[in-house]
Amino acid sequence: MQNISHSRVASVVASLALANALAGCGGHDNNGDATGQVVSELTVPNIAPTTNFSFDIGVVSGSRYYFTDRNNAALDQVDIPTKSFVTSIRGTGELAFAGLGPGPNSKAGPDGATAVGNLIYVGDVNSVKIVDPASSSVIKSIPVSTTGVRADEGCLDANNGLYMISSPEESPPFATFINTTTQAVVAKVTFTDAAGQPSAGLEACRYDPATDNFYVNNDGTTANPHGELVKLPGASIRAIATGATQNYTTLAGAAMYPEGNCDPTGLAIGPGADIAVGCREATTGSPLLLQIFDRTNGNLLASINAGGGDQLEYDPSSNRYFNAGSRWTATGLASSGGACSAASPCTPVLQIIDAAKRSLIKTVPSGNNAHSVAVDGASGQVFVPHSGATAPVGCSTCTTNGFTNGGITIYSSK
């Protein structure tokens, strides 16, 4: 396990930021390709220019793009070949999504979306909902708690038919594992650290089939208050007795890799042994980072001034990462408390990173609160939902860049 000092990270970022500035790669494509060009802009039902559009994670499955939409209490569906909005998939009764609910986000849904075969598993308040896109319906609700907070982001071990989803606002936070054949909960893993303190929360998770490990961003522990990358061996998860709960520190082979001053969000399995971590630093004035680690040992391989995002995706066809940098700023440093406000505004961008060189290729403007991204390598398209320019407050560039109304921006990925 490598200890990453804040001074070392700051030094690396300063060097990279200077190199990027000299090369002009913040907003220009030095390769002359079409990466990041806007190819279409789609509207979303019931989202007006002044609507605070509350959406979350997106995913591509087959020829459709899906993302979670709390305003419409739905999983929204876009047809990729025609670049057209198809429908908002809603449930009824116990199958209905929570929607905006009483607020805040911790009590709203839907949240994370994960493709599981021909179905989409969706995190919601107290539950995971299963959506069948073929019938445009919610077909099942799997309870994971009764506390009124959300099950958030998930990931899939397709080899063993095991789906993991985190409940970050529980006390302590926990991950639920669901058998995708029986669609039943088989185990839970709690997140209380070695000092006996609950995790500060859980963010994105990924499964690595090459090594049979789950990875999850832990928001903070006693040892690593601004985040750690946790490795959970798949074999240890499958060894948990059916219906039992075990703490992550007691799982055989589990490892915790410090992420420095990160406050992690997005996570993406990259080429080779790389794993990329999106940071959304809450420390005012901190460099906004995207960090790349060796997932076998936690060694830091690169620290790039390209953070302030939420969802992070790797596209094998272009060998690039795409980071939805909703809290990026003009200086590349975290705004006040890491949040966007009228007094301390953000300048949202889509960040495009060369996975081979572990370096920033370019940034392109995006819309307000554009923190969700999904990539379709087959068509070369990137999907980024966003809110209107004025709600929520704190976007200083949205109107100037033409992102007046809420909707979905489609970019070219290569």
From TrEMBL:
SUPFAM superfamilies: Quinoprotein alcohol dehydrogenase-like. InterPro entries: Quinoprotein_ADH-like_sf, WD40/YVTN_repeat-like_dom_sf. Keywords: Signal. Residues 1-23 form the signal peptide. The keyword Signal applies. This is Uncharacterized protein. It comes from Caballeronia sordidicola.
